Amino acid sequence: MPLPLFWFFALVMLLGGVAVVGLRNPVASALSMVASFVGLAGLFIGLNAFFVGIIQILVYAGAIMVLFIFIIMLLDLKVEEKRTPKLAPLLGGLGIVLGFTIQLIGILSKTPRMEWQSLDLKTAAAAHAQSSPGISQKLSEGHLPDVNLIGDVLFKGYNLPLQIVGVLLLVATIGVVVLSKRQEA
């Protein structure tokens, strides 16, 4: 990925994240989250993780944000009224940001600079020969089947957590609908 394109997507992602927190209108805040997701998807695609980038757009910027907007409209949230900021929470938040920045600089300064290593597809093909012959064949032909590999890892290694997350999302959606129904007096 060209460096100016990286900085563009990083800036879109960061500005969208700041706007999510800074805007008072819930709908504008949710749409700013879409901008942040689009910037993140651009960064994924720049890292040659095409499947993850497209899923970021389809699932998060598409379906999840439509659900968020639907819930915001269903709950009929109003624009938050402006209050005078208090000094103690502001200083506490700035202290947390400063502490995190110092930790990040300390960790990044001690991280060794490593050279890029290309993937050894032949070794990966041999590792998948028994469990996934289709993936092994694609790897031995020189193709990197990222969709197949993600599906293989998700459904063979993390099937139960994936099902639990699906049930939790369903329960949360049903809970929001039940809580948002107005009680008749």
Question: What this model shows, in words?
Answer:
By secondary structure, the protein is mainly alpha-helical. It folds into two domains: 79 residues, NADH-ubiquinone/plastoquinone oxidoreductase chain 6, subunit NuoJ (Four Helix Bundle (Hemerythrin (Met), subunit A), Up-down Bundle), CATH 1.20.120.1200; 66 residues, no CATH class. The protein is 76% helix and 0% strand. It is built from eight helices and no strands. Helix 1 packs antiparallel against helix 2, helix 2 packs antiparallel against helix 3 and helix 5 packs antiparallel against helix 6. The chain is extended and about 60 Å long. The chain starts with a helix and ends in a 5-residue tail after the last helix. 8% of the residues are buried. The mean pLDDT is 83.
Concise summary:
This protein has helices spanning 3-22, 26-46, 50-75, 87-110, 121-127, 133-140, 146-157, 159-180. By secondary structure, it is an all-alpha fold. The chain is extended and about 60 Å long.
Count of discrete domains: 2
Shape: extended
Q: Characterize the quaternary organization of these chains.
A: single chain
CATH superfamily of the largest domain: NADH-ubiquinone/plastoquinone oxidoreductase chain 6, subunit NuoJ
Which value, in Å, is the CA radius of gyration? 22 Å
Proportion of beta-strand residues? under 5%
Average pLDDT over all residues: 83
Strand tally: 0
Uncertain regions spanning at least 5 consecutive residues: none
> H/E series, N to C?
HHHHHHHH
Structural class: mainly alpha
Enumerate how many helices there are, as a single number.
Answer: 8
Would you state the CATH class of the largest domain? Mainly Alpha
Helicity, as a percent range: over 70%
CATH fold-level topology of the largest domain: Four Helix Bundle (Hemerythrin (Met), subunit A)
Separation, N- and C-terminal Cα atoms = 60 Å
Main sheet properties: none
CATH architecture of the largest domain: Up-down Bundle
